[in-house]
Design a protein that fits this description.
- This protein is mainly beta and about 140 residues long.
- Helix content is about 0%, strand content about 35%.
- It is built from no helices and 11 strands.
- Strands 1-3-5-9-10-7 form a 6-stranded mixed beta sheet, with no helix packed on it. A 5-stranded mixed beta sheet has the order 2-4-6-8-11, with no helix packed on it.
- The protein is globular and about 50 Å long.
- It starts with 11 loop residues before the first strand and ends with a strand.
Length: about 140
């Protein structure tokens, strides 16, 4: 049997402006910056949720110039969050939210993993700065 090779490269895309996610964005890593102003990223609408859809957002810009909002349009995001303060105060604690906000105090490497079960988005966030990522 011959050797099998796998493409192990990550599918990485830079985001520095408004963006609406697509079903084909599943599996991508988005590098976030906000040099041109406040950035709004829109997740797939609830009616289009796809089981298994997932992506990762990583802060590329150390202390972004502006806030970056990842929005679902309705309260369908459940998130567990740990930050440098060692607390989970920005976790949703069973109450779904509409938005995850990456603030201007975020640091390079902060990350948010998001996946969908077909009806809800689930997110996990790690941040190097206390309260740099919040929810609304």
């Amino acid at each position: 049997m011959g050797r099998v090779f796998f493409n192990t490269r990550k599918n990485v895309h830079a985001l520095d402006g408004a963006y609406t996610m697509l079903a084909s964005d599943s599996g991508k890593i988005f590098m976030l910056s906000a040099t041109g102003g406040t950035v709004a990223i829109t997740l797939l609408p609830a009616a289009d949720l796809v089981e298994g859809w997932h992506c990762k957002f990583v802060t590329k810009e150390d202390t972004p110039s502006n806030a970056i909002t990842i929005g679902a349009g309705s309260a369908i995001i459940d998130m567990v969050h740990k930050d440098a303060g060692g607390n989970a105060s920005n976790s949703t604690a069973g109450t779904a939210v509409s938005n995850i906000v990456v603030g201007a105090t975020s640091t390079q490497g902060d990350m948010i993993n998001i996946f969908c079960d077909g009806s809800t988005y689930y997110a996990e966030c790690l941040s190097g700065v206390d309260d740099a990522v919040t929810t609304t």
